[in-house]
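Hey, I'm writing a tutorial for new members on how sequence and structure tokens pair up, and I'd like a real worked example in the thread rather than a made-up one. If someone can provide the structure for the chain below, I'll link this post from the tutorial.
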Amino acid sequence: MLLRMMLAEIAHRKGNFLSALIAVTAAVAISVGVITVCDASRRETVRLMRDMGFNLLIVPEGTDMTDFWSRSFAEGEMPEEYVYRLANSSVMTVQHLVARLQKRITWQGREVLLTGVLPEVQMVSGPQKSPMGLNIESGSAWVGRHIADSAGVGVGDEIELSGRWLRVERVLEEQGSIDDIRIYAHLHDVQEMLGREGRINEIEALQCLCGDKQTLADVRADVRSVLPGVQVTEMRSIAIARAETRKMVERFAGILVPAVVLIATIWVGLSTLRNVNDRRAEIGILRALGVASQPIAALFLGKMTLIGLLGALLGWALGTALAIHYGTGIFPVTAKAIAPIYGLLGWAVAGSALLCLIASWLPAMSAVMQDPAEVLSEE
């Protein structure tokens, strides 16, 4: 009976129904679209910030950081085994571990920074991710632009370093930094050249963005619980850029979604109020004939609940479609990962129905509280 009355009400006042449905659909579509895009933006931000490079440096305990920054490497050393020990631990605050051994040497009358790099060792306790760092094969060398130009070497040439011949696999683009005078090689090749087998002097890592309250002190405590004889330094400019960019995305969603929901709630409330005002005479007649207030209130509330359910379904589908269509162009790096968030559908349905009930509650109550004699006398 109630459903038949609601359908008859909708058919009789299509404009009012469509107005409220459009408001709910738009609110859900915008909210779902923003959340889906923000989820893609978060992944894109993490990937782009990751590509800025490592933001943590693990060096031997007692390293004088003044000397480190002037030399660009630590004089002290630690076992290569440290990188595997950390990777096999339960530490969750770091990821993407790369062990390096660096030393300044003279090559062809030029001072170069010889850098041995081990391909990334992933943390076993977390999800496996696409690797960072350089993946240099044994017997190969990657040469900084300034060294390559001044020495006249190019890709495919053979160069001798400390009695070992390496093939130039890549000449790096000009960086405008100390990287232009580096010669990279596999860690084990450099260890052999320098007679430092099994030794490294730094581990590069990336701080895991797994909590807003995570601090550098937390990271240091975690790393030192596994590697007691090390010190952890943060490359703060990179760390701040990552954290601030992530927070900016979260603030955007945190402001826009509530604003849209508030506007839609007001719109639905005004639509219900207008509907009630338009039907004052009918409501007065029904009350005068002895119809109880509950069925009348149920008619308005049921209609708005139905609008909330339909608007949620339409809005979720529309918002998801728009986010996928436009998101792939906005976030090309993680475009393939943009997908419907089905968990939002349940929240959209429940939230829309609840908000429609809240928005229509006062107008519905005002309808059933009217004195039928007073209403009919006005008419």
